[in-house]
Write a structure and sequence with these properties.
By secondary structure, the chain is an alpha+beta fold. The protein has 10 helices and 36 strands. The chain has 3 domains: about 150 residues, Beta Barrel (OB fold (Dihydrolipoamide Acetyltransferase, E2P)), CATH 2.40.50; about 160 residues, OB fold (Dihydrolipoamide Acetyltransferase, E2P) (Beta Barrel), CATH 2.40.50.180; about 170 residues, CheA-289, Domain 4 (OB fold (Dihydrolipoamide Acetyltransferase, E2P), Beta Barrel). The relative contact order is 0.12.
Length: about 525
Amino acid sequence: MATIEEREQHGGVRQMVLFRLAQEQFALEINKVKEIVRLPATTKLPKSPAYIAGIANLRGNVLPIIDTRQRLQLDMAEHTESSRILVTEVSGHLLGLQVDSVLTVKTVDADHFKSSPPVSQNIDKDYISGVIQEDDDSSLTLILNVEEVASISIEQGEKKEAVATAAIEQKETEEDSNSEGEQFVTFAMGREDYAFEVETVREIMRVTTITDIPNAPSHVKGLITVRDSVMPVFDLRALLSLQTEISSENERILIVETCGFTLGLIVDRVKEVRRFPAELIQIPPDSDDVQELKGIVKVDNGKKLIMILNQDKLLAENESASVRQWMDDEGVNSMTAERKQGELGQGNGDEEVQLVTFNVGEEEYGIHITKIQEINRLDEITHLPRSPHFVEGVTNLRGNVIPVLNVRKLFGLPEKENDDRTRIIIVDIGGRKTGLCVDQVDEVLRLSKSNIEPPPAIVSSSEANRFMEGVCKLDKGKRMVILLDVEQILDKQELESFQSIDTPDDVKDSEVEIVGKKQPSKKKRLSKPKTVVDK
């Protein structure tokens, strides 16, 4: 008697994976199923087709997942312990199909395969490639047409993937034509404000567990691990000879390149990412007493000073050599070198990009830091009559009235009350300085370009492809950040309606509404916003 494998080769039998959706039984050829996994954590994609449940991490690969019930227009239901993902491949693209349960793998004789009837259980016949009808069973098993369910124009998707990849590379080499002066990260130490040039700050992170090291220099608080790199953490207060204060939840660690190595600096509170015109920056006198300063910024007509620190002069030469020697003795440099060598061996040592990440709803997004002019705390917003639904209103930015877009409304998410974590990210949209209202700003980070993948092909053919540059994979794929192209966040119609909105001086109505207040428009003056990054 011929084996199943021999009968398969001659078309006598086919092995099928049987699964259930709603009350129906479906099948898929086993050679189309790469694996079967439990439901993973899923990242939703804004403005993607409703049947796309999101994207997930599959051992470091970005896996788009289709809500198969939604795709086949079946009744929706909650996931259960039996829910599974069938990982399949369509024209070289991995894809996950969400099903209620997997029943069995069954060998089916060829004469049990029938053509699909014109209507199969009220399911679009295009999604069904045939049926299985057993001799002793009057019920039908529907054979899923996975190519049609995926509904991907592969040629179009691959072209868009190529365009997206090129765009990611191009954006990092382009000069930001809308920049106004140099960009800095500003932070507070006590009552004084300081800044570093943004290029020197690799990341901004919350204070995490710091490992104490015996016999370390007095400035060194200990060691931390940041994305597989071991580095020392310094108390910036001690370096600047400032009075020690009690730690608070607002403290942050700035990861800075200095003195030939990377280190963390603990600061009291990060305030903003902001550009300063060159004319506001005064070069300090050439003196040993101020060697740690690169410049002094005069803001608010000189009423306030921000001191720009020279990261390479924070440590005296003998201190720098001492710390470097201590790092060598403790094996810190060798640990980091080994990890970096491992990254290079894995192809992750290529060019890096710098992003600001933030949350809208449950998902995390990122924007290239070169596209961000400032990050501000939410202040009073004046509502504009007859403005597009996604325009929250306008606010004052140092005398300039700028519109504020509600990203939740743009992405079709439920509305949420603003709170003390709400932030305004200042970007340029259509040549106009614009604020993006987001739930909270997380961090500034660097990552390798190799960790940014173009949008999956199934997304490339949807509306989300317009403003979605790619998917950033962090923490070995466990964390996914959706990279946005803010210049494309509005479609053509939205952009036209956005560009036509009036400023408060042009409003003709008798009153405008401030969120939570109402005042006459002619008497209303917008207060100056507080610009901060910290949560």
